[in-house]
Automatic annotation (TrEMBL):
Organism: Benzoatithermus flavus
TM region positions: none
Keywords linked to the UniProt accession: Cytoplasm, Gluconeogenesis, Glycolysis, Isomerase
UniProt pathway: Carbohydrate degradation; glycolysis; D-glyceraldehyde 3-phosphate from glycerone phosphate: step 1/1; Carbohydrate metabolism; erythritol degradation; Carbohydrate biosynthesis; gluconeogenesis
Cited PANTHER family: TRIOSEPHOSPHATE ISOMERASE (PTHR21139:SF42)
Protein name in the entry: Triosephosphate isomerase
Function text: Involved in the gluconeogenesis. Catalyzes stereospecifically the conversion of dihydroxyacetone phosphate (DHAP) to D-glyceraldehyde-3-phosphate (G3P).
Catalysed reactions, semicolon-separated: L-erythrulose 1-phosphate = D-erythrulose 4-phosphate; D-glyceraldehyde 3-phosphate = dihydroxyacetone phosphate
Gene: tpiA
Length: 247
């Protein structure tokens, strides 16, 4: 999938009863026209099919927030990549810090999930990022490289995987790394991707963590930043659109 840049993705997390999701998707649909960049939303699985139907024809891509690493089976409560695809998703987020650190997901599991997404024909958004302790210890680049080494599946390509650099300490906190630090991390990710994939120079790398309308333009202007993954600010159509316009 060739994605026009900048890429602006909104992760709704566990927000959106049916009426709220309908209003939010409707607000996006009426503002968007045809996006010149890539715009995408990742609603909760319970409303994914409805949001995908509502946004059909707008050019806004719809994805899931996580998937199981198996296509089907006795896994109560889990949702597989083929199920997401069947519901209208074209992409799925894997390895978000709220799953790595909140639910103990390992790099190996994240890699299996990326693989499952690819096998289902979904674009995988692979999240990586250091914790606050790792950042304070100056271990950011080492952590990013390790996460990439251990969660990038062999043979994966730029057309099928997007990497999202999300410092754990920046998610939902209102804090962000300096622009220089974001540039440094993205450069290290790029260098690692060039070792891991034959087209590693083409993999889109997003920044995520407290992106708002007032910092999005500066962040997206950093060399090596191909777009943003937005959490909280994606729940308001005006704010999300302001971010999209800033790119
Ligand atoms: C996220 O959870 O992916 C995220 C970037 O959240 P926020 O924008 O709210 O920091």
């Amino acid at each position: 999938m060739a994605l026009a840049r900048p890429i602006v993705f909104g992760n709704w997390k566990m927000h959106g009863l049916r009426a709220e999701a309908k209003a939010l998707a409707g607000g996006l649909a009426e503002r968007v026209g045809r996006p010149s960049a890539t715009l995408g939303v990742f609603p909760p699985a319970t409303v994914l099919a409805e949001v995908a139907a509502q946004l059909a024809g707008t050019g806004i891509l719809v994805g899931g927030q996580d998937c199981h690493d198996k296509p089907k089976g006795a896994f109560t409560g889990s949702i597989s990549a083929p199920m997401l695809k069947d519901a209208g998703a074209v992409a799925v987020i894997v390895g978000h810090s709220e799953r790595r650190h909140g639910l103990g997901e390992t790099d190996a599991l994240v890699r299996a999930k990326v693989q499952a997404a690819l096998e289902a024909g979904l674009l995988a958004i692979l999240c990586i990022g250091e914790t606050e302790a790792e950042w304070l210890e100056g271990r950011t680049l080492e952590v990013l490289e390790r996460q990439l080494d251990q969660s990038w599946p062999q043979g994966a390509s730029a057309a099928r995987v997007v990497v999202a650099y999300e410092p754990v300490w920046a998610i939902g906190t209102g804090r962000t790394p300096t622009l220089d630090d974001i540039g440094r991390s993205h450069a290290a990710i790029r260098a690692r991707l060039e070792r891991l994939a034959s087209d590693g120079d083409k993999v889109a790398i997003l920044y995520g963590g407290s992106v708002k309308a007032d910092n999005a333009g500066a962040i997206m202007a950093v060399a090596g930043v191909d777009g943003v993954l937005v959490g909280g600010a994606s729940l308001d159509p005006d704010g999300f659109f302001a971010i999209y316009r800033a790119g």
